[in-house]
Amino acid sequence: MFTDHFDACDYLKIQFFKHLTVVSLILGTIMATTICFIIWVLFITDTVWTRSVRQVYEGSDPEDWTVHDFDCPRECFCPPSFPTSLYCENRGLKEIPAIPSRIWYLYLENNLIETIPEKPFENATQLRWINLNKNKITNYGIEKGALSQLKKLLFLFLEDNELEEVPSPLPRSLEQLQLARNKVSRIPQGTFSNLENLTLLDLQHNKLLDNAFQRDTFKGLKNLMQLNMAKNALRNMPPRLPANTMQLFLDNNSIEGIPENYFNVIPKVAFLRLNHNKLSDAGLPSSGFNVSSILDLQLSHNQLTKVPRISAHLQHLHLDHNKIKNVNVSVICPALPTTLPAEQDSFSYGPHLRYLRLDGNEIKPPIPTDLMTCFRLLQAVII
């Protein structure tokens, strides 16, 4: 058993270097050095998982790391090297076993579980991560206090279940809620009112209609940054989104238009996906997508006949598979300010567009020369 995170890394390095000579003979010194560097980078990459594991070892008393077989559910696996993890996936379970108090990470995906009662979690006060993907859980099967009692829970995965509405109540501590590929068509009022720490909400591939939303549906989501509602049945843009939304994914719906000034309420949106909808020129705001925060705009597979107005800050624009016949550069080229700061020239201060996709339209090559003159940072144009 490793005594701390850094001992674990040292052990892995020692094992790697034992075989480095053989690798060097085969691949050469340069190749071996490259492999060594890549493996080392992978071990120290600061992902959510490595941060969480580091917190386990740095924030716990080493005396508490001893794994006692008697508290490990017989249906599950308790790895000695990760004493805060409990693996119960792919076991045909119909019920959630009693969760030991030492567990932070719980894996229950791909079982036959239909209910989430309170009792199995009554001692699991340290849980940070629950994966219940690919089960048969319904809203009626979730006991009211089962999830809200988990005061330290950060990540909840309930993808590929039988949910018809967003479950509630949920713990205030929650940061990510994954509900993709359910049957969600309802979001009860007040569902998100206490989820001020939620940063990611994934509702893709459900059965959401426009009537699922009220003006205050997303009230309380003060820190939400990523909202995914792709592959639903929306015809309109959802109302009153959280102000801090940075990534908005609405592809594969039936959205026909975007209200005037819609983006005023989400001034930080940087990544906007509206591929595979029914957007037409008449359905766009008069200013198009001239929103300074947007860096990546995806409008593929719609019904546009012309390139919409864009911001000088936009870097990636996807317009493939529309009905566009020509590119009017005089309309879409963002105008430069009449006066530039002394330290800036027109090249560095001009439009930032680097990638433009126009294939699948009615545009014929060659690329218009004035397009390249306007967007001088363009690295790729696909027609």
Automatic annotation (TrEMBL):
SMART domains documented for this protein: LRR_BAC, LRR_TYP, LRRNT
UniProt record similarity statement: Belongs to the small leucine-rich proteoglycan (SLRP) family. SLRP class II subfamily.
SUPFAM superfamilies: L domain-like (SSF52058)
Transmembrane domains' residue ranges: 20-44
Keyword tags: Disulfide bond, Extracellular matrix, Glycoprotein, Leucine-rich repeat, Membrane, Proteoglycan, Repeat, Secreted, Signal, Transmembrane, Transmembrane helix
Subcellular localization, as worded in the UniProt entry: Secreted, Extracellular space, Extracellular matrix
Protein name: Keratocan
Main location: secreted
InterPro entries: Leu-rich_rpt, Leu-rich_rpt_typical-subtyp, LRR_dom_sf, LRRNT, SLRP
Source organism, top-level taxon: Eukaryota
Domain LRRNT: 71-105
Keyword match Repeat: yes
GO cellular component: extracellular space
Originating organism: Camelus dromedarius (Dromedary)
